Amino acid sequence: MPRRLPFYLLLDISESMIGEPVAKLNEAAKRMFAALKRNPLAMDTMHVCVITFANVARMPIPLTELNLANLPPLSVRPGTALGAALTMLKKSLDEDVVKNSPEAKGDYKPVVFVVTDGEPTDEWLGPLKALENARPRPDIVCVGCGDEVNFSVLTRISEKTVSLVDLTDDSLPKFFAWVSASVGAHSEAVVSGGGERRVVSLEKIPLPAGAKKVNLEKLPETAGGKRIFLHSKCGKTGKHYTMICERDEKTGIYRHRKSHPLPENFFEGAASGPARPVNIALARGAFPCPFCGGNSFCFCGSCRNLFCRDRHDPAPKVVCPHCREVFGRPAEGGDAVMDDSMG
Ligand SMILES: [Zn+2]
Ligand SMILES: [Zn+2]
């Protein structure tokens, strides 16, 4: 069997990627695969594996020859289980990559790209330590997207970390075009140079505008942990959505930024426990429901979940769409049974 270049892509599909970012990620990853498939040397040598992580890690593409790799559409889920993704990576490195033997050379040094926009929600240091013992040891590049990334986590995983702070333009497709060019050039280099130790160079092909190699001495400042996601259910349609807020550390005030419908399969396989108790007195903004246009939300004191409501709805009763508990219509400006703690 000819020597292969294993290329692993670990993609964060957590809730914070909801909406445009995940759509861009889908598009960018698709284009990257198409570009790699046009590179004859990459087609000859490269085998790809895609691992996604949110509440759990999944492997939509097990290590497969590039030609046969087709990425299914990615959709967001709760959580950022980076540790589980690293564990899955280690298992595939152990089981799927051909090791050197006295008779023959094994696969080339595997290349791994970890793309994330947040902070891990599971234990990741243990899995990282285990990964450090993987043979062959992979060459890892981390990519932090957006302004919520914990760069101290990423730089612990790899000194080769790239920051991609601004996700509002076409930075993600451009960056993935850079990845395909870079990994494509790398596949040519390993085949012609034969270097076992050869690693992906971040400098060989200039990074696209907006992407920067992270300086280990001076990590980029981010708003890590400022955003909170409040899960709610529409009382009229029964559909789930999330209210993205920004929390002010000093005052505890959280301002509504955006409401977004959640995909039907969002809670699939996830523990969809009750929303964390929120203090509505600290909420600022309209908190609209994206389904019925209701302009506010309540907290059900019975099942501890959130649901939409309209402050101007004249109906005398409010029914919780989660547990069917019936509440009397709250006074104007007030809300159903509340909890005064948050977090
Ligand atoms: Zn609604
Ligand atoms: Zn309820």
Query: Architecture of the largest domain in CATH?
Result: 3-Layer(aba) Sandwich
Biggest sheet record: 7 strands, mixed
Mean pLDDT: 85
What general outline do the C-alpha atoms trace?
A: elongated
Q: Assembly state here?
A: single chain
Strand order of the largest sheet: 3-2-1-4-5-6-7
Bound molecules: zinc ion
Examine the coordinates and then state which fold CATH places here, giving the name of the CATH topology of the largest domain.
Rossmann fold
Strand segment tally: 15
User: Strand fraction band?
Assistant: 15-25%
Q: Regions with pLDDT < 50 over 5+ consecutive residues?
A: 331-343
Broad CATH class of the largest domain? Alpha Beta
Tell me the structural class: alpha/beta
DSSP helix fraction: 10-25%
Q: How many H/I helices?
A: 6
Tell me the CATH superfamily of the largest domain: von Willebrand factor, type A domain
Query: Gap between N and C termini, in Å?
Result: 55 Å
Radius of gyration: 23 Å
Element order: H for helix, E for strand:
EHHEEHEHEHEHEEEEEEEEE
